Each structure stands twice: as C-alpha cells, then as structure tokens.
Amino acid sequence: MPDTDPRAQRGAAYMATLDPGLEDALRRGMAPVAPDFADMMVQFGYGEMMSRPGLDPRGRQLVTIGALTALGHPVDQLKGHINGALSIGVTPAEIVEAIMQVALYAGFPAATNGLRIARRVFADRGVSPLPATGEL
After folding, report:
1. In whole numbers, what is the pLDDT of the chain averaged over residues?
2. Does the predicted model carry a pTM greater than 0.90?
3. Considering only Cβ atoms within 10 Å of each terminal Cβ, which end of the chain, N or C, has fewer?
4. Distance CA 130, CA 81 (A)
5. Which residue has the higher pLDDT, 2 or 109?
6. For the domain that residue 106 is a member of, what is the CATH number?
C-alpha cells in the first residue's frame, strides 16, 4: 500500500530520480535493525530537505557530494550520491570540481579520498572523469 503522507511521496519521487531502486534498498537495509529510520530518511531527508525548492537537484547533489567528502567517512553514501548525480545529468567533471573544492576547507586527505571514491564510481559506470576539450 503506497504511503499517503505527502512528504513520503515527495521523498520517494526524489529518490527515484537518483536511482529507481534507492528507496527499496534503504528499506531492505534498515528493516532488520531500524525500519522507522528508513521512514525518517524518506520523509524528512528526501521529502523535506532534498525536495526544498531553493536549489535544483543538480545543485543539491553537488552540495551533498561536497559535504559527504568533507566528512570523510560516509563512503557508501558518497558513492550513492555520486551515482545519483550522474543519473540526473551532473557531469563527472563537475563532480570532480566539487570534490576538489573540499580540499580548501576540509583538507587534501578528505578530497583525495573523495576523488578515489569518485574514480571507482566513474569506472563502474564506464564514464570518463576528464572533460572533453573545451569543457569546464
């Protein structure tokens, strides 16, 4: 039965733009330990925060990638948001620039680790992180 909470509906729709299987994967992963946490992520994380009108999805994904890179430890989440960004049209070159910007504020180790994660995501998706001549 679909959730009728508008926040859940917005959250599910936003998640589906990033990865059609994202909500199901989140719910499966949390079911054995904290199913309510999945509801919170869908309703608040994606239905309230990620769906706000102040930034477009591309901007939100770049900010999220920068924040996750700066934190330095949420590897799975960074991979997921890099994949999501690529799915909505953010270029690999833009992702690389967002991660490199982190070096100025969070340090080179955080940016280096973020770039390594991005490199793996790009390789898995078969995309080049280097811009074509004349881009960026």
Report:
1. 93
2. no
3. N
4. 19
5. 109
6. 1.20.1290.10
